[in-house]
Structures are given as structure tokens and as C-alpha cells.
Amino acid sequence: MASKRIKNLNDMSEDDREKKLKELRLDLVKSKVNASKTGNSKSRELRKAIARINTFNTSEDRKKGMLKK
């Protein structure tokens, strides 16, 4: 679920990526709570997926000329 590859992100619209980002952030919070209870966590995988989407969004903004390098 959390592993989104770049080819999948290319197919998603900007709104879909934002929805997925919010969903992953919520899952990260839930994962941290569960980790404190059970000691088992997948937060690292979720953080990587969030970073991957943020990086993709930043590169798309640069391509559109919205951000300077």
C-alpha cells in the first residue's frame, strides 16, 4: 500500500496525489500509536512513501516553473 513508485505517481492527478499524501500521513499517525502499543511499526515505509510523493510534487513544480532551483 505505501510503496508508490514514480510510474504510478505519473499516472495520478495532482488532486489524487494530495489525497494520497493526506491518507499516508493519517496512516503514519495511526502506525505510531500502534507501535507504542504493540512494538510493531511500518512507519519507516510510510515516511518513505510520503517523501517520495513530496519529491515528485517538487520536481513537477520546478518543471512548471513554479519554483526556482
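the 2nd protein, sequnce then structure:
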Amino acid sequence: MKIQELRQLTPKKLIEELKKTKRNLATAKFQTKTGKNQNFAQIKTNRRLIARILTLLGQPKITSETTPEK
């Protein structure tokens, strides 16, 4: 999933996507350890997607309330 697609999701949907991606990462790691999966790039892709989602969840929304007062 690309960053533009992630930015359009609501925080609730981002959390759901985060849970799904973490589950996929755990499954990929387990399958790699047991020899069922030879696709090592899948682990890297899932880790990067998790980082992107966490970054978006941590960013404050830019609103008029956050502007400094004079």
C-alpha cells in the first residue's frame, strides 16, 4: 500500500491496517523460519508498511488550533 493511499484512511482504519500488517509480518517470519516461505522481501515490505502507518498515526493534524498565538 502506498503512502498516498494510507493518508486517505481514517485513524481507525489505519489501526486496523496496522494490526493486519503486524499479523502478516508474524506469519511471514514464522514461515521463513520453518522453511515454507522463501520470500524474504515480504518481511522487509511489511516492516516498512508498519513504519509508515506508525508515522502517520504519530503526526499531529494541522489545524487552526495548533497555530501559535500572538
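The two ends are 41 Å apart (CA to CA). The mean pLDDT is 87.
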